[in-house]
Every structure is written in structure tokens, then in C-alpha cells.
Specification:
Elements lengths: L2 H18 L7 H14 L4 E7 L2 E2 L2 E2 L4 E7 L3 E6 L7 H13 L3 E6 L9 E5 L2
Parallel strand pairs: 5-6
Antiparallel strand pairs: 1-4, 2-3, 4-5, 6-7
Length: 125
């Protein structure tokens, strides 16, 4: 399954999670856990709170990168639940993608009234 097919499944699952939980207003950890469950139910390989070591000049740092979700070892998902979206979230995901050499990430803001308007694709060239 390629990145675009995976991301389409993630977007669909996020919409179901948002609708089922009643929209915005919960903690992002709730949405993250529900999304991980929904994706796993759909047959995706989901790793939640995945720790990734960070190397700096050949030295492994003591603080690893922590991904909200890694889906099919291919797409990074960063979950948010805020009423004030900031584009720094996209820059954060782009940094993650560069550090782990992946191409696609999604920032999903469950704090939006309609979650589909809170989904942002991030692409690492």
C-alpha cells in the first residue's frame, strides 16, 4: 500500500473517530488512542507513541523522538486537539520525516468543528 492510499485510510478513520466521539472538546490523547484503535480495526499496522533514537554527530541523544502514530511504518500522524492551529505543527512533522527518512506525514487537529478542515499533509522531498 502506497503513502497516498494509507493517508486516505487515515483521513477516513479520523473522520469516523471525530464523529463517533462527538466532535471537538476532548484531550488529544483520547483522539490519538481512538484513531489508533480504528486504524488497527481496519487492518493497518499502528505504532503509538513510537520512540525513535536521534543521532547528533554520531552520538545517540538521550531524548528520543516520540511519534504520536506511525502507520504501516510509512506515514507519521501527529494528533492535535486545539482551537488555535499553528503551522509550526507542520514544521515539526517535517522535521520528524527528515530525521527518520520518510516521505509523508499528517497533522490531524481534532479541535476543529469539522475534522476534515483540520487535516494537513506534510511532504518530505
Amino acid at each position: 500500500m502506497i503513502e497516498n492510499q494509507i493517508s486516505a485510510g487515515i483521513v477516513d478513520a479520523a473522520i469516523v473517530v471525530h464523529r463517533t466521539l462527538g466532535g471537538p472538546g476532548l484531550l488529544e490523547s483520547v483522539y490519538e488512542e481512538a484513531l489508533a484503535y480504528e486504524l488497527a480495526e481496519r487492518g493497518f499496522d499502528v505504532q503509538r507513541q513510537k520512540l525513535i533514537p536521534i543521532s547528533y554527530k554520531g552520538h545517540e541523544l538521550g531524548t528520543p523522538l516520540r511519534l504520536d502514530l506511525l502507520v504501516n511504518r510509512t506515514v507519521v500522524v501527529e494528533c492535535k486537539a486545539t482551537t488555535h492551529y499553528n503551522t509550526i505543527y507542520e514544521a515539526q512533522v517535517l522535521t520528524y520525516l527528515r530525521l527518520i527518512n520518510l516521505r509523508l506525514g499528517l497533522v490531524i487537529n481534532f479541535g476543529e468543528r469539522l475534522v476534515k478542515t483540520g487535516i494537513h499533509r506534510v511532504i518530505n522531498n
